[in-house]
Specification:
InterPro entries: AAA+_ATPase (IPR003593), ABC_transporter-like_ATP-bd (IPR003439), MacB-like_ATP-bd (IPR017911), P-loop_NTPase (IPR027417). This protein has about 260 residues and is of the alpha/beta class. It is built from eight helices and ten strands. Bound molecules: adenosine-5'-triphosphate. The site of adenosine-5'-triphosphate (ATP) has 11 residues, from helix 1.
């Protein structure tokens, strides 16, 4: 097994305020496979991703990539391990504001001896004509393409994506998901992607459902959908509809009690 997440436990706070966020989470991901972590807000998805990415620490359990376990390493080896194995894509891009697209991606290349070819990657990302712009001159989708480039240029074994389309409209979201799918197929990258969107999960090889810090189910996705065929608008429409309904009900209540 390529990526092995074994019995992860994590709590925040002390004494009476102690709150267990992850209660023994285990799953595996094969090389070149995409796993989606699906679950409601507060179920522990981002905490888990941050632990796998070495951004946060765990209380119990272990994370292994290709039989290397980060918990057994010195700080120096841990940094080298992160550089070699991990790329991170966040919802809010986190680009360096005064560097161009090309320079932002190049930052990732300096972290690896085995990096991908920058010119080829700029073409794969569809960013060739924007390469000399700085982030404030880009659309949200172009900024997210740049952040995917920065994460992937070092040719990591594992790409971690935390709600990568959370700040984007449905058309741009689809383009970004198509790009993530293309990267996975071209470079055989393993991907763990966090989302609360059931429709996005349909593109995964494996769907892992989390609830209250526990794994509720792990399913191989036999009816996998290509990113280009995902129906994202339905979810957004339902979300907008529920939001409007909530506002209407609140207004009725306010009228009633005022
Ligand atoms: N640094 C922290 N200190 C204390 N509690 C935290 C910390 N980080 C997360 N939590 C708590 O852990 C729980 C899980 O948070 P997490 O962000 O992992 O959930 P999530 O499933 O990613 O939610 P969302 O979809 O809303 O981002 C939440 O109740 C949150 O308040």
């Amino acid at each position: 097994m390529f990526i092995s997440i074994d019995n992860i436990e994590k709590s925040y706070g002390e004494g009476e305020n102690r709150f267990q966020v992850l209660k023994g989470v285990s799953f595996q991901v094969e090389k070149g496979e995409m796993a989606v972590l699906l679950g409601p807000s507060g179920s522990g998805k981002s905490t888990l991703l941050n632990i796998i990415g070495g951004i946060d620490t765990l209380d119990n359990g272990r994370v292994g990539i290709d039989n290397e376990y980060i918990e057994n390493m010195s700080e120096k080896d841990r940094i080298a391990y992160r550089r070699k194995n991990l790329g991170y894509v966040f919802q809010n891009y986190n680009l360096i504001p005064n560097l161009t697209v090309r320079e932002n991606i190049e930052v990732g290349a300096y972290l690896s001896k085995n990096h991908l070819d920058l010119e080829e990657l700029l073409s794969v990302l569809g960013l060739k004509k924007h390469e000399n712009k700085i982030p404030s001159q880009l659309s949200g989708g172009q900024q997210q393409r740049t952040s995917i480039g920065r994460a992937i240029i070092k040719n990591p074994n594992l790409l971690l994506c935390d709600e990568p389309t959370g700040a984007l409209d449905s058309d741009t979201s689809k383009q970004i998901l198509e790009l993530i799918e293309k990267v996975k197929e071209k470079y055989n990258t393993s991907i763990i992607m966090v989302t609360h969107n059931e429709n996005i999960a349909k593109m995964a090889d494996t769907i892992i459902r989390l609830k209250d810090g526990e794994v509720k189910s792990i399913n191989k996705n036999v009816n996998k959908v290509k990113a280009s065929d995902l129906e994202l608008w339905k979810t957004l429409y339902l979300k907008d509809y529920l939001e409007n309904l909530k506002k209407i009900l609140l207004n009725i209540l306010l009228c009633f009690y005022s």
